[in-house]
Design goal:
Blueprint lengths: L7 E2 L2 E2 L3 H11 L11 H17 L11 H15 L6 E2 L2 E2 L6 H10 L7 H27 L1 H12 L2 H6 L6 H21 L2 H18 L5 H16 L4 E3 L14 E3 L2
Antiparallel strand pairs: 1-2, 3-4, 5-6
Length: about 260
Amino acid sequence: MGTAERISIGGGDVRHPAAVSTAVRETTAPAAPVFELPPLLAIPLLLGLSALLSLTGLGRYGLWPPDEPRYAEVAREMMQSGDYLVPRVNGRLYQEKPPLMFWLVSLASLPTGDVTETTARIPAVLSALGVVLLTYLLARAMYGNTTAFIVGLVLCTTQRFWWEGRVLQLDMLLTFFMTGAMFSLWQWHTQRQPRHLVTLYLCIAGGALTKGPPALIFPVLAMSPACSVCLHSASRWEFFPHSITTSPHGSSVRRFAP
């Protein structure tokens, strides 16, 4: 008699394998979350905490060399000359970085008429708030409200993160665009709506205008597995509309056809 057919061993009962499997699944089922904050409460809490950490004492200290004074000077000369297309520092052509951050600093400085310590750092603060929001939304789409709130809370209270969110550097603005690209890619993966592809490529373009070609690295790495799958599973994938098929690295991207 086979093992699965025996009903007793030494006088003891043996449960049917299917019943054992069901019991194992029941005992290993994930527990319900201890708490769950709805988005209408979680988002204001996370953004408020992040803003508090980033804005406190924002203009109480001078611009820190080497980058903050140089970037602020580029924005100041843009405002003085009215030439927002060609960045300059001390009257000389500045070609090291794209102009997007300088445009944002100039825009934030319009109410005061000049670039100050506070207005120079406002774009970084707003970028940090955007990163917290996008990270929460991405985690919520993938794992639910509870995990998303914990992830957002850990992010905005991480020392290096909130410090980068209060200095005139390019990294936080670049992080905002890269996080937006990852969120748009996930939305496309789950919803298949062309508008998410539009936001994906807009975020990649924003990253390129912030820090140049290196901004293409992370989106390309994220999309490469999908491109690899579509090359090996052509029968289950179909091309995007032609206007949005070409990725920044020149490859054709396909989407899964359910």
